[in-house]
Design brief:
- With 88 residues, the protein is an all-alpha fold.
- 53% of the residues lie in helices and 0% in strands.
- The chain has helices at 2-21, 26-36, 50-65.
- The radius of gyration is 22 Å and the shape is elongated.
Length: 88
């Protein structure tokens, strides 16, 4: 009985580990990172609108994957204040 239980636990562990390892499509991850880091996204900063370009790209990816939007939108408002400091 103990050998059977051990064998079943081993099979369960192997299945779980293999599922976790195969859970990411690394080629897709690399392609997404290359896209987001490309010059077209202006470093994803706000000065040249890179943040909006990146947000629209991600929204398109979410739609393509069939993810449902929350309250009709994929983005949430994030109020922030630009802090500028003077160097003396």
């Amino acid at each position: 009985m103990n050998k059977l239980l051990f064998f079943l636990l081993l099979i369960n562990l192997a299945t779980t580990v293999s599922s976790a390892l195969l859970g990411q499509d690394m080629e897709r991850v690399k392609a997404t990172m290359q896209t987001l880091c490309s010059p077209a996204f202006h470093g994803r900063g706000y000065v040249n609108g890179g943040d909006k370009i990146a947000a629209l790209y991600l929204e398109g990816q979410f739609r393509q994957m069939g993810l449902k939007a929350f309250d009709g939108a994929y983005a949430q408002p994030l109020p922030w204040i630009l802090m500028l400091s003077r160097v003396k």
